[in-house]
Design a protein that fits this description.
- The protein is mostly beta strands.
- It contains 4 helices and 21 strands.
- 8% of the residues lie in helices and 41% in strands.
- An 8-stranded antiparallel β-barrel has the order 5-6-7-8-9-10-11-12. The chain has an 8-stranded antiparallel barrel with strand order 14-15-16-17-18-19-20-21. A 4-stranded parallel beta sheet has the order 2-1-3-4, covered by helices on one side.
């Protein structure tokens, strides 16, 4: 089946036609089913929101989560595409809709205005790289949200924060941004560190994708038509969301015109000097990579464990040698480098160990995705390097 629900975490409240069949369909279509409500949950399946037992569970559901019927799953699979969620909102027999947060005891109470909930919250960090399409130059950077003002009447949010450029003499700049629906416009306007590596101002336009794997994907925009027409200046970026470890104020559902949340210097909110982390969400258990060790030796790498942001484990499958070995690795989030060490033979033979691979995370033809690991390898501590290798994400 297609990955129809790859950004969705489901729970089921109440009864459905065939629970085992429904959960299998979710898993086979890229979604994740959980027995209990948790912070990763994105959609709640409940066919009857009027049932008293269901109401008790629905009271625990956050108001930004949508409550849908099981037909969203079955019909999407039938049509072989992810259908519009709003067409499958579970309706109350009394006429209410399937929003989260439990039942409403007052028929006369009107719903208050609310901004769409998203991941661009104070204290969050987004990491990725700016990629110049023609020149293949890539510059890692992190975007740190330090303040946010939400205007409920205009449905707009004003953001401010900093951008870190670790490979450009650790340059740090300030930005301001406007978010409306999923459209994000960023103006990078002021140098914070004393460096000339980043020319200002810079303007970016992007789309924000929420769900299980939030991201910001966009491009640089130029005011000068000549710059816009210059193919060497065409650049795009893809930022991955790294959640904040600190608590922040949620968007209020009262009639207040705007809600402001910001960091301060007495320790509350997010620290602007905290080290950003890169959420390389493709280096997870189950993903496989294929590549060439040295012609004609082909090998595949399967990630089996990622216990934290830095350390990964995996299995190397030497296709022609019919040999499998163990692999351990360490990620450097600042410069996107990675070191992999092939240590022990699991089965077969003909591979001389240890082999140490030193590489860099980069992009293939799609500049928006870090899906390549390229570099050099050494066999049994040899100096200089024995040769080169390339691993490409095999979805």
């Amino acid at each position: 089946m297609e990955e129809l629900f790859e950004n969705d975490y489901f729970i089921i409240i109440g009864t459905v036609t065939d629970k085992d069949g429904l959960t299998d369909s979710i898993d086979q279509s890229g979604g994740i089913y959980s027995k209990t409500l948790n912070k990763k949950t994105t959609l709640v399946i409940c066919n009857d929101i009027d049932d008293e037992n269901n109401k008790k569970e629905l009271d625990k559901v956050k108001s930004d989560l949508k409550i849908i019927s099981e037909q969203f799953i079955t019909e999407s699979i039938k049509e072989k595409k992810r259908l519009n969620i709003d067409d499958f909102i579970t309706k109350s027999k009394s006429g209410g809709g399937g929003g989260g947060g439990g039942s409403n005891d007052s028929d006369d109470q009107q719903p208050s205005k609310r901004l769409k909930v998203d991941s661009l919250q104070v204290g969050s960090t987004w990491m990725g790289a700016l990629f110049y399409v023609n020149t293949s130059e890539s510059y890692p950077f992190s975007l740190n949200i330090e303040s946010r003002v939400d205007d409920i009447n205009t449905n707009e949010s004003k953001l401010e924060g900093t951008i870190d450029w670790p490979t450009l003499e650790d340059a740090k700049t300030a930005f301001r941004a406007t978010l409306k629906d999923d459209d994000l416009k960023i103006e990078e306007h002021t140098q914070i560190t004393n460096t000339d590596q980043v020319s200002l101002p810079n303007n970016y336009e992007a789309k924000v994708t929420n769900g299980n794997r939030p991201s910001i994907k966009g491009t640089i925009v130029y005011s000068d038509p000549a710059d816009s027409a210059n193919p060497d200046l065409k650049a795009s970026f893809n930022l991955t969301f790294k959640p904040s470890t600190t608590s922040t104020s949620s968007i209020s559902s009262t009639s207040t015109t705007s809600t402001t949340t910001s960091s301060n210097s007495n320790g509350t909110g997010s620290s602007a000097n905290s080290t950003p982390k890169l959420d390389l969400d493709y280096l997870i258990a189950g993903n496989q990579f294929k590549g060439d060790f040295e012609i004609p030796y082909k090998f595949n790498v399967k990630i089996t464990s990622r216990k934290n942001q830095q350390d990964i484990e995996g299995i190397v499958d030497w296709v022609d040698l019919k040999t499998k070995t163990k692999l351990k690795g360490t990620l450097n989030e600042k410069d996107l480098s990675i070191t992999l060490t092939e240590t022990d033979i699991i089965s077969g033979g003909g591979v001389e160990l240890p082999i140490v691979y030193t590489g860099t995370l980069t992009s293939s033809s799609d500049p928006k995705t870090l899906d390549l690991i390229t570099g050099q390898y050494k066999v049994d501590g040899s100096t200089p390097s024995t040769g080169k290798f390339k691993l490409e994400l095999n979805c």
